[in-house]
Amino acid sequence: MDHSSSDLSSPQSIDRRAFLSAAAAALATSACGHNSTTTPEPDGAEHLTSRVSAPSQSVTTGLRPLGLGSSTNPRDGLLFVPTTYTPSQPLPLVVLLHGAGGSSANWFGSYSSRAEAAKFILLAPDSRFTTWDASLGAAFAIDVPFIDLALRETFRKCAIDSRRIALAGFSDGASYALTVGLANGDLFNRVIAYSPGYFLDSTRRGKPKLFFSHGTADTVLAIDRASRTLVPRFRQENYSVDYIEFAGGHEVPQTISDQAFSWLTAGWP
Question: Which residue from 27, 36, 187, 196 could staple onto 175, CB 3.0 to 4.6 Å apart?
Fold first, then answer.
């Protein structure tokens, strides 16, 4: 959802505990056959394998569905390609992960115009369920394979600069961006976490630079238990971390996403 004062805000009408309980039950009984509480994921399940290559297909500029949904799970995602795109000039790619209860469409109000101006390609996959699998106790079982598929399709259609690939997320999507981003620092060189709640450690690869933001009045993911705990940890582990606290709730004010985009463009070659 897009707002005049805030790029993204949480669906405050959702009771988080009830929501996650229902989503966990859906995951445990899904046709995918993964048990969210008893089946450990194999080593390396967090690692994305798709890599940048010369595009073999054409792409339509503007905003379009990924076309990767199915009859059993219609959740899909969106791809934005700026109108100035040409295959001879590889562009940066930013992968966007929505918050709990949301979808890829939540990103596309101001983000389309931002990406057009900055000449970024945006990929926003939908989580397979109503939030990301790590929040349901089945990290990497469901969503990493779909993100990998979405990336593979993007690399087939778009010329991407492999030096400029970022992973960003809001709320549960921010937690998942941190979790997946640090496990795939050999693909993502920058990770943006807007109001994250947790980080699930796994095998880390590379050392991406990190950007955090969090509202001091956040009542969904309290700042003291989230970013004020996570940021010092990553700094102690010698990650480069930019961190902004703002007077507000569970949201991404426009000024914060402006700073995140500036951080990307200033830091990339």
Answer: 196
